[in-house]
User: What shape does this take?
Amino acid sequence: MLDKAATADAAANPVITRKGPRLPWLLGPALVAGVAYLDPGNVASNMTAGARFGYLLVWVVIAGNTMAWLVQYLSAKLGLATGRSLPELVGIRLKSNTGRRLYWLQAELVAMATDVAEVIGGAVALWLLFDLPLLLGGLITGAVSMTVLTLQGSGRHRGFEYVIVSMMVIIAVGFTAGVFIAPPDPGAVATGLLPRFEGSESVLLAASILGATVMPHAIYAHSALTRDRFPERPQGITTTTLIRATRWDVTIALVVAGTVNLAILLLAATSLQGVDGTDTLDGAHAAIETALGGGIAFLFAIGLLASGLASTSVGAYAGAEIMQGLLRIRIPMLLRRLITLLPALAILAAGIDPTWALVLSQVVLSFGIPFALVPLLWLTSRADLMGEHRNRWWTTVLGAVVVGLLITLNVALLFLTFTGAG
Assistant: This one.
């Protein structure tokens, strides 16, 4: 009788086993947030860097991914230890209504700029695959993202995770296939591990890669994802256990994202270096088709489509959390998705160059980096908020270095962009 009852209990709650909670059940939020590191902006930045400078900026991709690990871990830990998201905690601490609204405005603009890049990426992919007009492609991208969001909005967090992770697999296959067809020379790749630049344009591209890697909306989203995924602690699972599992979750997500981003740069450096037009998504697709064949170009376009669909869904989730946390206003997620879709559709309808829109979106992201990183580091270092889970002193110091570097490089991106030094 007791054995049957124990068996039934284990079946109802699969995380409770004699050996403790199963690690795979605890994974997921970081993989969802990690899709933000594989959005069309990343593709454009890494492709351009490889085509123009070969393996020179390999070290930037690796460094950016390493810094992103710490940032996403701190965001996830904040959500787990406090049961609140970063926007919620900032909203609580900003006593002034004006301060909250101004903070919300910059965060909302950043989220919308991200959405513009992601919807445009999906639209370009549909144009490459099916020759659909860009506006129609944008509408389809928005419609699919709204369908995916219904899973998260209805509380089916695991279903939302499964869809996003499945798209991540498609992205990985689509963007890495070319490297297996035309593998890079290991010795040449090793030369790119030495930190260096070659002129202001390489600095601009390095800042663009980092700006497309550590993005504010991914920081806001990750704290909310862990909060929503674990609103209560099941029997046998403590916050400490979840934070330990989160380290694995973030590591897996960033290894996947970093590998794919590196593969994009290596593909361009190996097969597209010196080829004109590779600084646009359609130009890169055409160059890949010429260099590696239609099959690899098709996989690249499929990867780009999955990238746009997945990242725009996560971006919309982040935008809803920003509004709710800072303004304490909750509107239906699908209605909000429709509203935030309008700027991207307006850009496509106006016939504005998609590549220019992508570049502009990365510039807007640069403005939002300090507003996400500084509060994150400050909040996770507070004992009165985090308790025993507050940052160790060395984590805070390392985080301060990372925050300083990212802010400096994003300022460099803004300066080089507006002065035309690149």
Q: What stands out?
A: Residues 97-130 form the longest helix (34 residues). Residues 1-20 have pLDDT under 50 and may be disordered.
